[in-house]
Amino acid sequence: MAKKVNSIEVFAPGWPTSFDDNVHHVNVLQWPKKHFYTLTYTICLIPVLVVHLIKERPDVIYARYFNLLFVIALIIRLFRVPLVVEHNADIHIENNIYNRGSLLRAFYMLSERILLKNCSGSIVVADHIVESWEKRFSIDKSKIITIRNGVDTNIYKPGKMLYNKKVLSLDMEKKHIVYVGSFVQYQGLHTLIKAFRIVVQKYPNVSLILVGGTTSQIQGIKDQIQSNGIKNKIKLYEKVDEPTAAKFVNAANICVAPYNKEVALPDRSISFGTPMKGDPLKIYSYMACERPIVATYYREAGYLLEKIGAGVSVPPEKPEALAKALLDLLADESKCREKGKKGREYVSNNATWQVAAKKTVGLLSSIIEKNNK
């Protein structure tokens, strides 16, 4: 984005100094202690920002949502500078996840209401955030744009399968089903392991690669596969950096995203195309590497893959259905190549950081132009 605008000022605590020439860091003090860092950041930001608003008068201010941002929004409005806010989660859902009390829920709702009323534009990463706002607030949808998370296609790009197998010391003769991501329960790895046991019975020359767990999570998986008699066919790895993650994806014949029922939006019946909580970046990472995918049939996962022809969708927590989808792809390499190419094409046109930056700059430019009239 820095290449598309004249100057960017970043107000952040302890930010790295390796910026482009037209990006400048303004250090904001913060007490890095749980329950206090947001409050101390806000208190320290106010005088720094006010001085900047008086001396520099920026064309627009861009902020990522935090629970005290509404205070900053009211100050910015006094100076008649437009504010654009990025929202990465539905606070209403998070209230339920974290079991927040009634007072805290009311505070977060007030924070959102004030922000939506006093900002010039809102960027959301998923459509369900807007749907949630519509149920709770009176909103101006013309001020809201959905810009999905992007993937770095300089890191996640098609690579030679055999080369990456060799680099990672994987079996060169076997086909590999690969999962990269966290090992938390909603990712559906228990269903995946049950499905893999079915796959192995019909297609013995295959292994399952799971990447991204903590030490305790990996031990839990080991305990599960010990009883299933498939421990020699499953390899487990802790979380790796993105370049290494891309190597694992490129070593795959098939990638998987077997989300369970917990990821569905609350108060929704679970069926083909049901929205899920968030925008799954792993799906884009898989597609960017030109790999076919089997994923649960949520709107942002398997439903999307079916729609663009990049993968196969299955219902959540159904190991038999997941196994069948994996077996069908293992038996058809040409179908795998075709789906991989369609996925890469989709990501290149819709889900890269370059695409996200272009859309963001377009929104900021239109808001600046409107404000200057």
- Kindly, what is the distance between the CA atoms of the first and last residues, rounded to a whole number of angstroms? 24 Å
Question: Which range best describes the helical content: under 10%, 10-25%, 25-40%, 40-55%, 55-70% or over 70%?
Answer: 40-55%
**Roughly how many Å is the radius of gyration?**
23 Å
Number of strands: 12
Largest sheet: 6 strands, parallel
Ranges where pLDDT stays below 50 over 5 or more residues in a row are none
Write down the secondary-structure element order: EEHEHEHHEHEHEHEHEHEHEHEHHH
Shape: elongated
Oligomeric state of this protein = single chain
The share of residues in extended strands comes to 15-25%
Q: Can you give the mean pLDDT?
A: 92
CATH fold topology of the largest domain: Rossmann fold
SS field, number of helical segments: 14
Strand order in the sheet with the most strands: 9-8-7-10-11-12
For the record, the CATH architecture of the largest domain stands as 3-Layer(aba) Sandwich
Compute the number of structural domains. 2
Q: Briefly, what CATH class of the largest domain? A: Alpha Beta
Q: Briefly note the structural class of the backbone.
A: alpha/beta
The CATH H-level homologous superfamily of the largest domain: Glycogen Phosphorylase B
GO molecular function, one term: glycosyltransferase activity
Protein name: Glycosyltransferase
EC number: 2.4.-.-
Keywords: Glycosyltransferase, Membrane, Transferase, Transmembrane, Transmembrane helix
